[in-house]
Structures are given as C-alpha cells and as structure tokens.
Amino acid sequence: MAKKPRLTIPKLHKTASQFAVVESLHGEPTLYGVTDGKAVGTYLELKFRPYLLERFTFVEGNAASGIDFPELAVDLKTTSIRQPQSSCPFKSARQKVFGLGYSLLVFVYQKTDGHDAKTGRLDIQHVIFVDAPQTGDFQMTRGLREILGRDGNLDDIMAFMHDRNLPVDEIELRRIAEEVLAKKPEQGYLTISNALQWRLQYTRVIEQAGAVCGVLRVK
After folding, report:
1. Domain 9-87+102-136+199-217: CATH class, spelled out
2. In the beta sheet, which residues pair with residue 191?
3. Domain boundaries of the chain, sorted by first residue
4. How far apart are CA 181 and CA 151, in angstroms?
5. pLDDT at residue 10, as a whole number
6. Count of beta carbons in the 10 Å neighbourhood of residue 5
C-alpha cells in the first residue's frame, strides 16, 4: 500500500477546492430542515476531515491545540453566506492587533432544501484562505497603520486603542502600544467583535479574496 503524502498548505487549498465542488452536488438527508448553523458547520467539518485523511497524513487538532491543523497552523471555519461569521476562542486582545496567530480556511455555503427528496444541499460558494498575518481586525490595524504613517507616538496609539475599546487594562495597553511602535502591524481583513469569544465576520475577506495580499480565493 502506497504511503500517503504529508498534508501541506498548497495541498490543503487544492483538496478543499475539490471537496467543495463534490459536496455542492450532494443531497444530504440529515441536513433536511436543519437551520442551526453550528450543526451544519459540524457536518461539513466532520465530512472534510475523512476526505483529507483518505489522501494525506496529518496531525489532527484537539482541544489542547485549539485548531484543526496544528502542524500547519490552520483552523477550519464554516459559515453561511447569509451571515458570514463564526466564533473563535479569545486568547488575548493582541489578536485584534497582530492577528489570531494562525491562518483560516473558510467554507462559505448557501443551504437549500429539496422538499421532494427531503435532502439538504450545501452549495459551497467560496473557499477562502486567510494567512495568519492578515487575521487581525480591519479597522484596528488600518487605524494603527495610519497613525504610524503620520508619525504618531505612544500616546496617540494608546488613545486610539482605548477609544476602540480594546479589552485590556492600562498596563497591557501600553505594552501593545510599544510593540506597535516597534513593528507596524500587518493590515488585517477580519472584523473582530469583542466578546467572551471573538466574533469573526467574513464579508470583507469574501469581497477582497484574490485582490489583496494574504487573502486567497481557493474556490
């Protein structure tokens, strides 16, 4: 039996695109009438994993790693085109400024029900890959980059982050501001809402995929 190749990011891109085409044609009885986005997302994730395992070897994510492909530093997200967003564990307020610390592979689907056959179908309309440096918050990173471009100082940066309600105390706010001064943050393309879990919104990455650095249209 031939040894399966190791999964790489380019192979992940290609296989995700192939999976999206196949899955978009599939009618699934267990999805008929299902409106819970979390249930649909779980279905897609559980189906994509064995599709990959048939073709490649890779370390599967677990609760400790917190992401689906820890070796590649990639997390899988699924979302409806009607409201393209998902939740994400909050680790540090720094993630809004410097990115999540890992890349995102995002399946964006439109669900329809076939009432005659009593099946649900997921038309995967977009597969987007967001590189880790581009996973910061769009408005936060744009504002900070503009301040640095106008020779802003530590006080300017701290005031801006404070005005945008970055969830940190004054000590951490200063520490982040010093990091921003030392190294300009990359432009992020997610919209990240403050909550006990980050709320990631993907409208911008869908619109910008393929047009900006670090946001790739896989399908």
Report:
1. alpha beta
2. 201
3. 9-87+102-136+199-217, 139-182
4. 10
5. 97
6. 11
